[in-house]
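Here is an idea for our session: we take a single protein and study its fold together. Start from the sequence, derive the backbone structure tokens from it, and show both lines together. Once you have written the record down, we can walk along the chain together:
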Amino acid sequence: MKRAQKWWTPMLLGAALMAVLVGVAAAVPPEKPSAQNPPRQVVLCAADFYPTRDIVEYWNDGYTLDTMKDNTQYRFLAPVNFVAPYWVTVDKVELFAYDNNTNARIVMDLYRSKPAGGAETLMASIDTGHAFADPINDPRTWQTTTISPNVVNPANDVYIYLLMTDDTALSLYGVRIWYHVGK
């Protein structure tokens, strides 16, 4: 009787193992991204930006990045990490800032670089253009869909190079990048 009961045990274990393997294989994402990908976004807040040189005349409390000295140009960097293991296509870039002076401006440049070659390519640029801010609509939003080249592969490093010029009446709140997976 014991022999008759044991013949089905290996078959049951084999069937259970097969079910687990099929479930794991189904959970692995496909090699190529789907053609119909929903738009995604990555947001960089003020806390993500750091100065390109050792300066102390700025304020970054995580909510805003502010300059603290007149007649000076400040440069900041922020790395961009896309949540995608494949190629991504950048669709739109938005800058959220306060520019309350016609003599000062914020310039945001989106770059991609290829570490192997050491070359960098400008993808997009936004300039607040010495605008006078509307206190009711603070922060203002500047955006561009003119992005070229707009495709980033996994070997590219992408970063934002930010220039704040001249005056203490500038505040950066953040940058949002809209993208989708695939070329």
Remarks:
- Confidence is low (pLDDT under 50) at residues 28-33.
- The chain has one domain: 33-181.
- The first strand starts at residue 40 and ends at 45.
